[in-house]
Amino acid sequence: MSFNFLMLSAMYENGGNTTQRFLDGHPELMVYPFESQVGTRFVDDSLSKMFPLKYRWPEFLLSANSFQDYKAIIDEEGKMRALTPHVSKFRHAAFEMNDGHRCELYQAYVQKSGRGRGQNVEAFFRATFDAWKNFKRSGRESVYVGYSPIVVVDAPKIVEDLPGGHVLHVVRNPWSAYADTKKRPVPMSLEKYLEAWNINQHYALLYQKKYPGRVHIVRCEDVLENSVKALTPVCSALGISPDDALKRVSWNGEELQEVYPWGTIRKATPEANLATARELSPAEADEVRQRTWQYLDVFDYAAFSKKIG
Question: Less Cβ around it within 10 Å: N or C end of the chain?
């Protein structure tokens, strides 16, 4: 089977996990169970200090072998759940996968394809779903789906490394996004958060123009309002049909009552999204407007801004 692939991207608290969970139950998709953090510590460029390396598209040492490549892939959430489930925030989720077995399968795939950035990523996803024993299959799966926050900054590498690869970037209004990031134990400052939010949108829009039909953008608000309508265009680009499963958030096909702990968005509804934005003080809301002004019209957030007050 050819390697058809969709990588989701989103700035933190922008609805990437939520969109991933809406896609989860689609019978033609193999959706990674957690964030697919395929980055390695060998990524080194101008953005390396701004964004965690685990979220970047990976780089591999020329001198390494396939076993070393596998170990270099950070995959923090997946490996933690497989190796030390008692400390994983997903320990309640029934997940049967032996990481050592996945590593063996990965090496077997690379032995056939040869080492390379694209080949290594393909082997990682194929091996994951081969090793995931209780993955609920429909028998119609044709597209692998990953999600790594902010990876849209590496979109050129993704579409060039993987001929069947697409990127879907999710953008959420910056008020709700910042209000949710404030709930983290050690939150980013408003200035640093919105600087990174702006950079994400810059690259998403740039690469959408450079790679039409391969890089896609969807607003989180549109996914929350009508997930089937919002996600149908990317389904069409992938050559699959929309499905009623897109109407609900799920994990391994099991409907979720809330997205958390897969993401900070607990209730995937427009009302909860607006209520979150209204948690900001008037001064904070105005500061968000000032720092993101160049994207508010582009993403049609003027009307949403008025609702905040």
Answer: N
